[in-house]
Amino acid sequence: MATTADFRNGMCLELEGQYYFIVEFLHVKPGKGPAFVRTKLKNVTTGRILDKTFNAGVKVDEVRIERRPFQYLYRDDMGYNFMNSETFEQVSIPAEQIDGVEFLKEGDIVEVQIHAESGTILTAEMPPHVILEVTYTEPGIKGDTATNTLKPATLETGAEVRVPLFIETGEKIKVDTRTGAYVERAK
Question: Which of 52, 107, 125, 170 is the 20 to 30 A CA-CA neighbour of 72?
C-alpha cells in the first residue's frame, strides 16, 4: 500500500480493478480546507487519460512492475510478436499496448512493462528516438527555403511524418516516437 505522498510520475496504481500509470500529479494545499492531490492517470488497457483527485494521505494499491527488454520479430493476426532477450520466450502483444507502434521495425528492442506478481504484460514502450529510412517524398523545390515549410514523407515502416524540404528519398532520419515528429538527419 502506498499513500498520496509516495506518488511519482510513471507509478502504476490499481483502482477499481483497472491498472493506471500516473502521467502527472500536483499536491494542492488550499488556504482553507484539507490538502489534496490532483492527478492525470493513463489507463493501461485503453490508453485513455483520466483526471482524478485524491485527498491527501489516502492509501492506494501500488502495482509493482518490472521492465524487461524484448526484441520485435514479426506481426501476424494475433498482434505483434516479441522475444524476451534473456529467456528467448516469445509473446504476442496487441497494438493498443505498444506506444509508437507505427515506427516499429523488425529487430527493434522495446521495453516491456510486466506486472511482477501475475506476469501479465501491461505495456511496451519504444525507445524515445528511432532512425528510419525515407522510402518516398516529393522532391523539394530549389530555393524554396525562406519559410520553415514541411512536406509529407513515407518511412520504411509505412508511417507518414512531416519533414523539411531538403530531405530526399533514401535518406535516414531520426524520428521522435512519442510525438511522431521529425528530429534531424541521421548521422
Answer: 170
Beta bridge partners of 184: 174
The CATH number for 27's domain is 2.30.30.30
Q: Which three cell numbers stand for residue 165?
A: 524540404
CATH number at residue 139: 2.40.50.140
Q: What is the pLDDT of residues 34-82, one digit of tens each?
A: 999 999 998 887 778 999 999 998 999 998 888 899 999 998 888 899 9
Q: Are residues 110 and 150 in the same domain?
A: no
Question: What is the value of pTM for the model shown?
Answer: 0.73
- Domain enclosing residue 27, as ranges: 2-62
> Alpha carbon 109 to chain centroid distance?
13
143-151 — which CB contacts under 8 Å span 24+ positions? 150/182
Coil vs helix vs strand at 143: coil
Amino acid type, 125: E
